[in-house]
């Protein structure tokens, strides 16, 4: 009973937060409502027994993506009034996309209601938590795919840095090669200062 009540509370908060992400006039408030939606989605994962997915959702999306959005919105001087000026122009396209999504959800819910209760076997072994069983599968059966995904993310990060790096004239840059090849004679200058001749 308490799980059902918690489910409906979290689901209602998610729906309200998702609507406020779109309806809020202040973009900072929209990002904060997005963070609230992510936190309640993580709570739903906890109710389902998927603690690992809940923590990943909190750490990755709330701790990284949503906070990054918040910093970008707060740091950039964006004219949001000009962005909202073309809202009515793209309203038919947005309404069509929303209608397609709603129709797909209706089809999914109708198929789920007519299929009856599902008898899905549990993927976890007795005496092992969900996170431990997921870790065993990832780091044994799918270790190659896991390492490949990490390598792809690393290449994407390096590519983003290379594409966004701009060399401005007149800016002093760090040269690792010159620093490594530097000798003490080039870095240290010894001066013989007599008493009373110090630099003030």
Describe this structure in words.
The protein has a domain at 1-78: Up-down Bundle (Four Helix Bundle (Hemerythrin (Met), subunit A)), CATH 1.20.120.1200. Helices cover 71% and strands 0% of the residues. The chain has nine helices and no strands. It has helices spanning 2-23, 27-47, 51-75, 80-85, 91-115, 130-141, 143-164, 176-180, 184-187. The N and C termini lie far apart (79 Å). The model has no long low-confidence stretch (mean pLDDT 80).
Topology:
Blueprint: H1 2-23, H2 27-47, H3 51-75, H4 80-85, H5 91-115, H6 130-141, H7 143-164, H8 176-180, H9 184-187
Quickly list its features.
single chain, 200 residues, Four Helix Bundle (Hemerythrin (Met), subunit A), extended
Radius of gyration: 28 Å
User: Might you state the CATH topology name of one domain?
Assistant: Four Helix Bundle (Hemerythrin (Met), subunit A)
List how many beta strands DSSP finds. Answer: 0
Strand content of the residues, in percent? under 5%
Q: What is the residue-mean pLDDT, rounded to a whole number?
A: 80
Which of globular, elongated, flat, extended, rod-shaped describes the shape?
A: extended
Number of helices: 9
First CA to last CA: what distance?
A: 79 Å
CATH class of one domain: Mainly Alpha
The CATH superfamily name of one domain is NADH-ubiquinone/plastoquinone oxidoreductase chain 6, subunit NuoJ
Classify the secondary structure makeup into a structural class: mainly alpha
Main pleated sheet: none
Helical content stands at over 70%
Which residues form runs of ≥5 with pLDDT under 50?
none
């Amino acid at each position: 009973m308490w799980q059902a009540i918690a489910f409906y509370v979290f689901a209602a908060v998610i729906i309200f937060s998702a609507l406020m992400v779109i309806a809020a006039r202040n973009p900072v408030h929209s990002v904060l409502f997005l963070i609230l939606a992510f936190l309640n989605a993580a709570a739903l994962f906890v109710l389902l027994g998927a603690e690992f997915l809940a923590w990943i959702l909190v750490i990755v999306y709330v701790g990284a993506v949503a906070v990054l959005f918040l910093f970008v919105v707060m740091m950039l001087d964006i004219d949001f009034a000009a962005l909202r000026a073309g809202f009515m122009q793209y309203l038919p396209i947005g309404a069509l996309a929303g209608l397609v999504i709603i129709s797909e959800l209706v089809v999914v819910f109708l198929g789920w209601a007519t299929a009856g209760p599902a008898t899905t076997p549990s993927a976890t072994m007795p005496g092992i938590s969900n996170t431990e069983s997921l870790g065993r599968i990832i780091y044994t059966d799918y270790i190659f795919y896991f390492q490949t995904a990490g390598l792809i993310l690393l290449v994407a990060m390096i590519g983003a840095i290379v594409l966004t790096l701009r060399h401005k004239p007149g800016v002093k840059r760090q040269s690792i090669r010159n620093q490594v090849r530097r000798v003490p004679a080039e870095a240290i200058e010894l001066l013989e200062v007599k008493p009373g001749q110090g630099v003030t």
